[in-house]
């Protein structure tokens, strides 16, 4: 919305040609790249641009999407990008940053600043869960959230979680990532008063069934206030945490100073 307002203001004040405005508006619903239709309108509807799922797309396809979004002025987030694809992309376009642990590419054209005072806390049970937790954390940061990370505080050593008790009380919404039996979200939800988003990971031995064991454990949590996303879906958890932390904030609108989740 801010970019559209700026373009119209530039045209009104004679700094932009009518043809530029019409080109922008023509692309606004979506841009057809033959293999993809980029939903440029999504930021107006949802407050954040379309996020690109990189797995299954070639490096050239991802490059084409990034270039189109760059031309439109959007920030870009691409998930599930392996190191080989990322290397090719970074060699052919300036600007994106690759986060290898999360396998995420981000491109910040419009500076991202925290939009409310609430804190998204991303907590993971074990070091093997960190890639999914980082995907959640980077997603929330790109959406304008302040993020705190806490790693390796799983239930096999509960004293580690209790050791950050004071820090936990400062969170506004929690993304809790765990594999194996998936018990950590229930424990966290029993210690805090705000929403917990549980993320099951595919980490575990045979009977974990690639994360299904953790998923079922989280869905059956006896602690209230727990919502569950799909297996390994750090992006979905980070996005949902951001929406919750905004507390009904209209898309793209900054909250007045002093207000926000607490």
UniProtKB/TrEMBL annotation:
Record domain PurE: where: 118-250
Classification via SMART domains: AIRC (SM01001)
Alphabetized GO MF terms: hydrolase activity
Family annotation (InterPro entries): P2CMN_synthase_LarB (IPR039476), PurE_dom (IPR000031)
One GO term (biological process): 'de novo' IMP biosynthetic process
Domain of life: Bacteria
Classification via PANTHER family: PHOSPHORIBOSYLAMINOIMIDAZOLE CARBOXYLASE-RELATED (PTHR43064), SLL1489 PROTEIN (PTHR43064:SF1)
Protein known as: PurE domain-containing protein
Native species: Syntrophobacter fumaroxidans (strain DSM 10017 / MPOB)
